[in-house]
Structure formats: structure tokens, C-alpha cells
């Protein structure tokens, strides 16, 4: 009988980790997940995958080499997916050291341990479109990196020193996905898309008056997380390691996302005013969107739109869900979740 492949996922409690775990389980992998100690038990936080008999959770932390070594010894993975990160760009300005510790040194600790414990393992690392920073779209693998946040800087250092560096120096099989923004009903509630879908659903149900946002003009290339984890797996099935931009190729502004989510909820919107005085009103003239400077970042990435031709050609990857379908999926899920909570 063919031996089942083993995968270790760091960041399994996050959005991507949960979709990836489900995807690998369907492919008959044995899935291990590194989880850090938190006040709320991780078993409570990943309802979707935690109770599956093939997901084995191992306590550990990317800040702790001994725990990483133990996780590798226990799981002996064929494939490692390093998704763990301090992934909030806004917070990275407030907690730059934590961001550097996990997003840069964390990968270094993992690679150093993997090199001796599982030298043949194939490794995926989560890079990001935030590394492009100021560079104008469309961005691809050859575009200039010009990060503007501590998050982007830490991810770029990890990419240059460890992904490219260790691949070259030690011949390790390390791929990195330069993923553009991807969302889902499991997206963390502080990211702008989820904040919008939750707040508008609450406004629709009369549980909240107003959604307060920062920069409405920022543009992002938003795809569906379920589509993006397929690409991570595809990268590790290649003969040679590489770096791939994963994106839809279409961008929208934060304002567009608000309008699309409102339309899904049958809430027609109109905008008036400028800058921080801008407001969005519903058809009865109630102000349902306002701006607060506190949600602006010290430095902003204004415009991201990825060119994923390389992944489409070499991996045969393409996204399946459109922007409209993504907004519909997220809006409906939040409306249902909030209506259910209200009933119970
Ligand atoms: P997420 O939902 O914020 O999940 C982050 C995960 O990292 C969580 O499981 C978190 O655990 C874990 N983690 C944080 N610090 C850790 C530490 N010190 N040790 C071990 N685990 C730790 O992020 P995501 O959206 O799934 O993103 C996955 C990866 O892709 C991240 O590296 C992110 O930077 C990158 N990325 C994401 C996007 C996107 O649009 N989603 C785009 C490009 C790149 P807790 O549950 O305990 O907090
Ligand atoms: N979070 C947030 N909250 N963002 C807001 C708000 C708000 O109230 N108002 C406007 N925005 C703008 C931000 O300034 C940014 O330009 C845009 O909305 C998207 O913000 P986020 O959803 O927080 O995502 P991000 O693009 O900064 O970072 C995400 O994508 C990166 C890939 O490009 C994260 O998932 C990162 O981990 C990932 O690497």
C-alpha cells in the first residue's frame, strides 16, 4: 500500500491553515498542525478541522526553536507549510518587534531545525504582495520589492535571506507564494473585507448603526482563500522549487467592496463629502459608513493587482471564484451567523 504523505502546517488555526488542512485531508494526507498556547483552547477555534481524526495538533511556537524541533520530530513531514505569522499589517506598525520575531526569525528557526530533522521535506513559505509596497501594478515575480510596513519588511527579509538564500546556499526545496489578498467567511474580523461584511450584516439586522473605516481608496486584488491554498499545494508538487505570484488580476477599492456587500444585502448606498468627512448613506438617508483617521496607516500600500501568468502557465492554477461571488459568499455567511446568534 502507498504510504500516506504527511504535512505539517504552522498557522493551522488561521484562515489559510484551516482551508489547507481540509484540502490536504481530502487528498488523504496525514495532517499535523502547530498551535500556540492561547487562553482559548485551539480545539475550540478550529471547529472545521480540529475534530477530524487525522488532524494532530502539536503545541509549539515559531518563537521557540525547541518546540519547532519537537513538532518536526513528532510529525516527520514530507511537506511543511509555514503559514504562521503576525499577519495584520496595521498592527505591525504598533508591534514591529513581534512582527519581525515571527515573520522573519520564525522562518529561520523552522529552516534550521528542518535542515537536520527532515532534510528532504519540501517547504512552502507564505510570502505576500505587501512586499511590493510602493511598486505600481501589475506586480509579478520580477517587479521591484519596495515594502512600506514592518510587516512587509519582515516578509521581504524572510523571502530574501531564507527562501532564496537557503535554496541557493543549502539546496533546500523551498517555495514561496507571493499571494495577493485572499478572503473568505473565515477571514479574521479585523481585516477590512470581513469588517465590512460583519458590520453591514449587523446594520441590516438593526444591531449596529454605522461602519467606521479608514482609507476607502486603497485598491486590492481580492481572491478566495480556498482557491489560493490549492496553489500552495501545487507548488510543492513541482520538480523544482520556485516563487509564484498568486492573484486574480483584478483589483477593486475598499469603497467598491462596501458597495458590493451593501448591494448583496439590498442596501442601496450613496456617497457624499470628501476625505475624512466622506459618508455613505442608505436609501433613507441614514449615515451607515463614516471615516475615522485612526484606521489610516502611517504608510499605505495604495494599489495592488497581481499578474499570476507564471503560476497559470507552470502550475496550471487559476482562481475559480469571482469578486462578486466572494462578496456574496462572505456577506451571506455573516448575515446568517449574526441572525442565528440573535435567535439563540
Ligand atoms: P491568519 O488568519 O492571521 O493566521 C495566522 C496564523 O499564525 C494563526 O494560526 C496564528 O495562531 C498563527 N501564529 C501567529 N503567531 C504565531 C507564533 N508565534 N507561533 C505559531 N503560530 C503563530 O493569517 P492567514 O490570512 O491565514 O495568512 C496565512 C499566511 O499567509 C500568513 O503568513 C500571512 O502573513 C500570509 N498571507 C496572507 C494573505 C491573505 O490575504 N490572507 C496574503 C498574503 C500572505 P493564533 O490562532 O494562535 O493567532
Ligand atoms: N483592516 C482595515 N480596517 N483596513 C482598512 C480599514 C479598516 O477599518 N479601512 C480601510 N482599510 C484599508 C487598509 O488601509 C488597506 O489599504 C486595505 O483596507 C486592506 O486592509 P486589510 O484588509 O487589513 O489587508 P492588508 O492588505 O493590509 O493585508 C492583508 O493582505 C496582505 C497581502 O496583500 C493581510 O492578509 C496580510 O497578511 C497580507 O500579506
Can you walk me through this structure?
With 344 residues, the chain is of the alpha/beta class. It has two domains: 225 residues, NAD(P)-binding Rossmann-like Domain (Rossmann fold), CATH 3.40.50.720; 93 residues, UDP-galactose 4-epimerase, domain 1, CATH 3.90.25. 42% of the residues lie in helices and 17% in strands. The strands form four sheets. It has a seven-stranded parallel sheet, sandwiched between helices. α1 crosses α9, α8 packs parallel to α10 and α8 packs across α12. The site of NADP nicotinamide-adenine-dinucleotide phosphate has 25 residues, from α1 and β5. GO terms for molecular function: GDP-mannose 4,6-dehydratase activity; NADP+ binding. Pfam families: GDP_Man_Dehyd. Its EC number is 4.2.1.47. One of its GO terms (biological process) is 'de novo' GDP-L-fucose biosynthetic process.
User: What structural category do the secondary elements indicate?
Assistant: alpha/beta
Fraction of helical residues: 40-55%
Total helical elements: 12
CATH fold topology of the largest domain: Rossmann fold
Major sheet: arrangement of strands: 3-2-1-4-5-6-11
CATH architecture of the largest domain: 3-Layer(aba) Sandwich
- Which value, in Å, is the CA radius of gyration? 20 Å
Amino acid at each position: 500500500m502507498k504510504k500516506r504523505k504527511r504535512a505539517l502546517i504552522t498557522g493551522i488555526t488561521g484562515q489559510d491553515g484551516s482551508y489547507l488542512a481540509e484540502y490536504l485531508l481530502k487528498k488523504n494526507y496525514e495532517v499535523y498542525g502547530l498551535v500556540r498556547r492561547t487562553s482559548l483552547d485551539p480545539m475550540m477555534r478550529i471547529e472545521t478541522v480540529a475534530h477530524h481524526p487525522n488532524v494532530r495538533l502539536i503545541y509549539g511556537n515559531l518563537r521557540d526553536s525547541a518546540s519547532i524541533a519537537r513538532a518536526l520530530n513528532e510529525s516527520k513531514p514530507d511537506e511543511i507549510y509555514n503559514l504562521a505569522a503576525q499577519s495584520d499589517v496595521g498592527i505591525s506598525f504598533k508591534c514591529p518587534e513581534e512582527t519581525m520575531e515571527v515573520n522573519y526569525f520564525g522562518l529561520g528557526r523552522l529552516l534550521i531545525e528542518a535542515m537536520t530533522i527532515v532534510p528532504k521535506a519540501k517547504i512552502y513559505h507564505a510570502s505576500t504582495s505587501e512586499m511590493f509596497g510602493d511598486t505600481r501594478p501589475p506586480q509579478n515575480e520580477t517587479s521591484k520589492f519596495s515594502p512600506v510596513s514592518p510587516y512587509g519588511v519582515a516578509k521581504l527579509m524572510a523571502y530574501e535571506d531564507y527562501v532564496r538564500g537557503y535554496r541557493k546556499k543549502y539546496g533546500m526545496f523551498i517555495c514561496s507564494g507571493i499571494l495577493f489578498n485572499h478572503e473568505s467567511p473565515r477571514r479574521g474580523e479585523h481585516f477590512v473585507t470581513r469588517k465590512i461584511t460583519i458590520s453591514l450584516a449587523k446594520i441590516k439586522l438593526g444591531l449596529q448603526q454605522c461602519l467606521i473605516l479608514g482609507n476607502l481608496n486603497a485598491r486590492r486584488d481580492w481572491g478566495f482563500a480556498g482557491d489560493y491554498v490549492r496553489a500552495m499545494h501545487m507548488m510543492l508538487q513541482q520538480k523544482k522549487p520556485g516563487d509564484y505570484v498568486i492573484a486574480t488580476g483584478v483589483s477593486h477599492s475598499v469603497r467598491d467592496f462596501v458597495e458590493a456587500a451593501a448591494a448583496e444585502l439590498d442596501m442601496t448606498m450613496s456617497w457624499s463629502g470628501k476625505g475624512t468627512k466622506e459618508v455613505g448613506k442608505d436609501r433613507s438617508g441614514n449615515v451607515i459608513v463614516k471615516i475615522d483617521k485612526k484606521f489610516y496607516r502611517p504608510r499605505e500600500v495604495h494599489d495592488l493587482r497581481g499578474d499570476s501568468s507564471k503560476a497559470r502557465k507552470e502550475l496550471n492554477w487559476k482562481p475559480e471564484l469571482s469578486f462578486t461571488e466572494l462578496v456574496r459568499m462572505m456577506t451571506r455567511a455573516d448575515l446568517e451567523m449574526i441572525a442565528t446568534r440573535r435567535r439563540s
